[in-house]
């Protein structure tokens, strides 16, 4: 299926690895011009090399990377002023930030909460604010926020994530149903469950060390809770993201799409 995205510009945050890279890879395969962002220059350079290595089928007219902290004003300005980039005139924006640390909410300071809200709520809102009016003026725009399955089914030790990401979800629910929908702009959230990423592997390793069980035992116990009996892959996550960004998804907005292999047990 041709997603109708060739030649458009996309900003993908947290794109040096994991789910962000999966999204960048899927968009690159559709011929999208990319600006990819993460904090680490080395990781971004490596990600860029991987994307360019597939250039026979991945032919973005341009592929730019900007190492910067997107949660800061300076970081966002660096992305918007990237030489050769589109400025603020992105057609697609994929927001993505690493989740805040787990723990008992009693142990979190006010600063912990502010950092979580800054990264997982306010930063996506700032990126939307900077780009959405241009999208509406051109008659096409796609915003995809990578949040978490914890928005749908909160996890007790993820208080920071539960709170900050739920705030973003509420904001998007209202904005997506504004006049932007009639002007060709969709805003949706992707809620990942357990995907095979560095973050998940680190979490499982820490769990194994705390419990005294082997890593394999912890992994198998986690997989047993997923009806699909496996973890997801960043590549298949990226494919769903690319479809949400496509010309075929113009009637889909304000939604929270849960990708968790069937782990969530509810009907709604």
Automatic annotation (TrEMBL):
Family per similarity comment: Belongs to the short-chain dehydrogenases/reductases (SDR) family.
Gene3D superfamilies in the record: NAD(P)-binding Rossmann-like Domain
Classification via InterPro entries: NAD(P)-bd_dom_sf (IPR036291), SDR (IPR050259), SDR_fam (IPR002347)
CDD domains: BKR_like_SDR_like
Taxonomy of the source species: Bacteria, Pseudomonadati, Pseudomonadota, Betaproteobacteria, Burkholderiales
Taxonomic superkingdom: Bacteria
Pfam families: adh_short_C2 (PF13561)
Name of the molecule in the record: 3-oxoacyl-[acyl-carrier protein] reductase
